[in-house]
Amino acid sequence: MLRAFFVHLSENPSLRNFAERSSLGRRVSGRFVAGTQIADAVRATQAINRAGMSVSIDTSAKRHPILMKPSTARKLYHQILDAIAANHLNANISLKLTHMGLDVDEKLARNIVSGLVAKAASMNPPEFVRVDMEGSPTLSATLDFVHELHRMPGNGTSVGTVIQAYLRRSESDIEKLLTEGIRIRLCKGAV
Question: Is 75 helix (H, G, I), strand (E, B) or coil?
Answer without folding.
Answer: helix
